[in-house]
């Protein structure tokens, strides 16, 4: 799919200053987004941040308080869900237990007035796409959770919507199955070319599946970017902290120009950091991923502290270090180097991998 394409000419969905209030409570606060045609786009954020509300507004289950939502340039205001070329796969994918699998999938097509033969053809094609071609005559109650989820997906795909909305569709599946269906979903998205808008609070799911991610909190979009942009170049503390593991450390900015700055942390040797050119003046924290802190000697140290513990994680060992002011710092080294790890209680010096720390907004 198209990782970068989201100019208005190819935008499938444009969210324009969308606001949603429930009484006094603002669930969405002037959100603007463009989602490119054929993109796998993810709304990521903690519980209550407004992801589902935004999805329901796009689908037409809720009305905007103000703002607009366009599908291929056309406002969807006033259009009920069934008149939008948008379909939704819900977390609770209620299938009809008294209908067979194929009847479940063709039901919506028949209701739209599509002729029987054509509806059956499309339903079978959609079931084939989700690898359920050999289950068409079963009852949904004879299927596993993962299989039911696939039928729900086929049901949403069969009308060939322009945009498919997926609201935490994998959350009911166990870990192994979830990983498998993740891969299948990305393949399906690429093969069909349908624009997917996927909602999750699982950052790993977002990073592994998406062309682009919008990170949300408190009804606002904090950052939009490719998984790599979001992980490597978080704009603010919230994004840095929510995506992956990081050390967020109070920093003294010694000099700063454009996208580069020099900072000092806890009185150690100054080091270079990256920042976005439009960063606010209040920026006073650096984000350093554990893997970007390297064990070193006292002369080279940007940060020093006392080792508090080692945690074995399989491929890596995580080392927790307490700085003099009590700040907890995490670093990671490859396991196998266990014999050379500084022992708990010993002093430990760390340097920041060149160019891999980032100054973030508050
Ligand atoms: P989750 O991951 O838990 O589903 P979410 O990010 O999808 O969370 P939303 O369901 O969009 O969050 O809810 C955003 C906020 O709006 C929440 O604080 C929620 O309580 C509130 N909210 C949602 N629907 C309504 C409603 N119908 N009436 C009042 N408040 C609502």
From TrEMBL:
Q: Which Gene3D superfamilies match?
A: 2.40.50.100, Nucleic acid-binding proteins (2.40.50.140), P-loop containing nucleotide triphosphate hydrolases (3.40.50.300)
Q: Name one GO molecular function term.
A: ATP hydrolysis activity
Alphabetized Pfam families for the sequence:
ABC_tran, TOBE_2
Which species is this UniProt entry from? Answer: Antarcticimicrobium luteum
The entry's keywords? ATP-binding, Nucleotide-binding, Transport
Q: This protein is called what?
A: ABC transporter ATP-binding protein
Query: Listed GO cellular component terms?
Result: ATP-binding cassette (ABC) transporter complex
Q: Which superkingdom heads the taxonomic lineage of this protein's source?
A: Bacteria
Cite the ABC transporter domain residue spans from the record.
Answer: 13-243
Return the InterPro entries for the record: AAA+_ATPase, ABC_SmlMolc_Importer, ABC_transporter-like_ATP-bd, ABC_transporter-like_CS, Mo/tungstate-bd_C_term_dom, NA-bd_OB-fold, P-loop_NTPase, Transp-assoc_OB_typ2
Keyword Cytoplasm assigned: no
Q: Which GO terms describe its biological process?
A: putrescine transport
Query: What is the taxonomic lineage of the source species?
Result: Bacteria, Pseudomonadati, Pseudomonadota, Alphaproteobacteria, Rhodobacterales
